[in-house]
Every structure is written in C-alpha cells, then in structure tokens.
C-alpha cells in the first residue's frame, strides 16, 4: 500500500517522508517544484537509504491528477502539504492562493472519494484561530475569519474536507500547525526558503551566517512580557512524526469521528526576543537586530493547548526551542558551506 505525500519535497513534507519511511511506509511524492528542488530527494535518501517514488505534477492540472491515480491504484492514504503559504503574498495575489490551495484539494478529494476507503491528512494552521481569546489555544476555540487569504484557504479547506467526509468514505485528520522550525538533526534536509525569508527563524539564521545585514523585529509594543509577539515554535521533526501517528490512526480506523482536528505545538509560547536569545546561545554569536514597526496582520500571541494531541492522538513534541534553533543553525551552516 502506498502513501501519497503532496508537497513532499518541501520543508515539512520532506521531513514527513523521512518519518514515513522510517516506519516502513512506501511513499510516492507529488511535487511541482514551485517551492522546492528535486535535490531534496538526495537528502531524503541520505537519511533513510530509501528513494521515494517521485512524480513531478501540478495538482492544478485535473487530468494529470486523474492520470496519477490511474497509475497508482494502491494508494491507501494522502498527506496533503502542497499549497502556497506566504501570508503577505496571499494578500497581494489572493486568486493565486484560492486556485492553488482550494482547487488542488478538490481534485485530490474527487479521486479519493472513488476508492472504497481513503485516509486523508490535511496541513492546516493555527492561523484559522486569528487572535484567539484564551491561551493556550484548544481545538474548539472559535475559527475566526482569518486575516489573510492564505489563512482563509486553510479555513475553507477544512470546511470542504468536513463536508466531503460526511458524504463519502473518506476519513480525515486536520492538523493545525503552530510555528514549524528547525531541521533534521542529520542536516541532510531542512528549510530552503526562496528569496528573502518571510518567517522569523530562517531570517535569523541567514542573518547569523551573514547573508542578511540585520533582523527587523516587527514591534516591541505588544502586551506581552517583553513587548514582542509570542508564538509556539515546534521542531519540524516533531511535527513530521505527528503526521505518521495521525495517518496510522486513520489506517487502523481508530478515529472517533470522520474528521478529527488536532493542534500541533509544544504548548509553550516564546517571544521574538526569546527566539533571538536561543539562537545566540545555539550559534555563540550576537545577532544584529533592530526594532521596527509592527507587521500588518500579526497577532500578539498564539500557543497550543496540547492535551488533545497528547491524550487522544498519543503524540507529544519532544524538542525544546534551543534544540530546534541548534538544528536550524547547523542546517544554515551546512547549506551555506555548499554554496560558498
Ligand atoms: C513569527 C513572529 C513576526 C519575521 C506564519 C503563518 C503560519 C505559518 C508560519 C505557514 C511574528 C516576527 C518575523 C521577521 C519578525 N505559515 N518576525 N521579523 O507569522 O507567526 O506564522 O508563518 O505554514 O500559518 O501565519 O510566523 O515566522 O512569519 O513570524 O519580527 O523578519 O516573528 O512579527 O511575531 P507567523 P513568522
């Protein structure tokens, strides 16, 4: 039986492929290489010694998606990462996000609903909570109208999956990620942001390696301990392992409802300044940064209540912020040594 990983050459996708292979699953990666490279396959092989099947395919091409499922009839589950994910870009180009993130989901589900049974894991995001009232955030916190079209595609995606699962034989788990960071300890795979990183940690490591002059901290006048925003930074390997646990739950039909939702975080909030301090410890360097104006659309704080993931899913994040930052720095040094 095969497991399809869409976006499997991306940051979280590639780490999940490694963990699936470690558990003995046969993986077929679908990726259109819009935000990744085929070289990531070598990194996966370097870690596991096994080369996953790979199909270069744009999920917006309905006929190509249909042909894929005609070719691979023994697919028992799909983990769907492939999507555009830059908040700022989604505000400038909403239709790109609605087309790429929603149409592709529909084409995948249309194929899966033809199977006698199918397991579907959806890459969602804590962004659907907007600024939640209560910390830590539980899965039953109200889903608010997300601030960005990117966040809205995650909210709409969840709704499409809920309605489809009710009417078909698809069983699904929605995984709401907090802030994925770090890299595989082998430094064979990691985050490869294209252009100027929008996210905090890759910008920090690129500043630390000298690629960026200094980090701009977007505001220190928030109502938090040190005035900077608080997030729940989760090691990407912990996140990847959660996908394997969630998939196994569906394959074993242990799910309690047709669609289950889990927050994936560490349960601990860290401020931007705390992340900088963690990086300085990891790299034994001083990070150049300046405080600038707030970034449009940023929320003050978000960190997960992990009780449901711990007790029902049977998964718990293992790595600390410091361990994740160390892995992020090791990866940055490795890829820059390749470039120079
Ligand atoms: C974290 C904190 C910034 C960059 C987004 C998406 C989420 C997920 C992860 C895709 C914030 C501050 C950042 C910088 C800074 N996306 N920051 N200087 O915005 O919490 O979440 O990315 O999977 O769905 O919403 O993550 O890393 O961009 O920002 O001060 O150069 O770091 O203000 O407080 P965010 P982020």
List keywords for this structure.
2 domains; UDP-galactose 4-epimerase, domain 1; alpha/beta; 340 residues; binds UDP-4-deoxy-4-formamido-beta-L-arabinopyranose; Rossmann fold; two-stranded parallel ribbon; 11 helices; 7-stranded parallel sheet; 13 strands
User: What's the total count of β strands?
Assistant: 13
Shape: globular
Classify the fold: give the CATH topology of the largest domain: Rossmann fold
First CA to last CA: what distance? Answer: 42 Å
InterPro entries: NAD(P)-bd_dom (IPR016040), NAD(P)-bd_dom_sf (IPR036291), UDP_G4E (IPR005886)
Pfam families: GDP_Man_Dehyd (PF16363)
Subunit structure: Homodimer.
Protein name: UDP-glucose 4-epimerase
Structural description of this entry:
41% of the residues lie in helices and 18% in strands. It is α/β, with parallel strands linked by helices. It folds into two domains: 211 residues, NAD(P)-binding Rossmann-like Domain (Rossmann fold), CATH 3.40.50.720; 91 residues, UDP-galactose 4-epimerase, domain 1 (Alpha-Beta Complex). A seven-stranded parallel β-sheet has the order 3-2-1-4-5-6-11, with helices on both faces. α7 crosses α11 and α9 crosses α11. The chain is globular, with a radius of gyration of 19 Å. It starts with a strand and ends with a helix. Bound molecules: UDP-4-deoxy-4-formamido-beta-L-arabinopyranose. It is an enzyme of class 5 (isomerase). Keywords: Carbohydrate metabolism, Isomerase, NAD. One of its GO terms (cellular component) is cytosol. Its cofactor is NAD(+).
């Amino acid at each position: 039986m095969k497991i399809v990983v869409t976006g499997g050459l991306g940051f979280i996708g590639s780490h999940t492929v490694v963990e699936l292979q470690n558990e003995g699953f046969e993986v077929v990666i679908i990726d259109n290489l819009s935000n990744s490279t085929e070289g990531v396959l070598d990194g996966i092989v370097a870690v596991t010694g096994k080369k996953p099947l790979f199909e270069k395919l744009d999920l917006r091409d309905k006929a190509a998606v249909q042909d894929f499922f005609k070719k691979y009839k023994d697919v028992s589950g799909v983990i769907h990462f492939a999507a555009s994910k830059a908040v700022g870009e989604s505000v400038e180009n909403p239709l790109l996000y609605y087309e790429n993130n929603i149409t592709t989901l529909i084409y995948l589900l249309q194929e899966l609903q033809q199977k006698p049974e199918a397991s579907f894991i959806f890459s969602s995001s804590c962004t659907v909570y907007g600024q939640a009232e209560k910390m830590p955030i539980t899965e039953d916190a109200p889903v608010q109208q997300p601030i960005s079209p990117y966040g809205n595609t995650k909210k709409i995606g969840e709704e499409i999956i809920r309605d489809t699962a009710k009417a078909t034989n698809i069983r699904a788990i929605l995984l709401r990620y907090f802030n994925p960071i770090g890299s595989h300890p082998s430094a064979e795979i990691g985050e490869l942001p294209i252009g100027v990183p929008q996210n905090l940690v890759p910008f920090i490591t690129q500043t630390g390696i000298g690629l960026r002059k200094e980090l701009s901290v977007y505001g220190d006048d928030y109502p938090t301990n040190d005035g900077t925003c608080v997030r729940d930074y989760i090691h990407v390997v912990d996140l990847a392992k959660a996908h394997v646990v969630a998939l196994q739950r569906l394959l074993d039909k242990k799910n309690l409802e047709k669609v289950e939702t889990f927050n994936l975080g560490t349960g601990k909030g860290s401020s931007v300044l705390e992340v900088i301090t963690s990086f300085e410890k990891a790299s034994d360097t001083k990070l150049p940064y300046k405080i600038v104006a707030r970034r449009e659309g940023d929320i003050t704080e978000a960190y997960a209540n992990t009780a449901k993931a711990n007790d029902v899913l049977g998964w718990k994040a293992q790595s600390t912020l410091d361990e994740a930052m160390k892995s992020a720095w090791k990866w940055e040094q490795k890829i820059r040594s390749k470039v120079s």
